[in-house]
Amino acid sequence: MIADEFLAIATPALRHHRGADSVTVSAVEPSPHGPLVRWHGPLLATERERTPKGGATCVGPVPGPFILDVLARTISLRWRDGAPRCPKDWAERLGRRHREVFRDSPFECGAGWRWLWEGAAELMKERGVPPGFRTTQAKEKFGTIRWYYDCSDDYEYTQSLVDSVEHLSAFICEECGKPGRIWQGGWIRCLCPEHANGRKIAGGG
Ligand SMILES: [Zn+2]
To answer: Between the N and C ends of the chain, which has fewer C-beta atoms within 10 Å?
Structure first.
């Protein structure tokens, strides 16, 4: 169930990454953060691609292994206490627990992304919150997460973490945290089929 959920999000999230079809799950193991998916992706690139272009450098997408580590942590937190549930005051709790990351910035989005925010905050704290880091906005826009922040230094790790959260939110239901996709029907939102409730698929029929 947990491995299926991981793959149902990882597969579309990495569809433009070379080597994505090499990703497999070997186990789901207990960890201090909850049941952690052990995955392998031997053919995924591990570095951001950099191509010089007219004096500047074009930086490629976040490497697949980085994204999968964020996803594995997100899912482990979701299943940490058994079947996922979400208290009404999830946003206040999350803000309190990770004040040094979110700085009392309100979460302007649904509860289904709470584990994604939480996983990223934990990973950032384990590595050390960068000097001057301050979340200025944490919200939903056009169906995915927008995480705006200030930081006194240009940390590639921080940018990769924020990029991963924003990217993964396009494949996780904003309402419940199950695998989701972008739908439209009045609003553009990322939802599981259950919560989409007859909405149309963006760009589709
Ligand atoms: Zn849902």
So the answer is: C
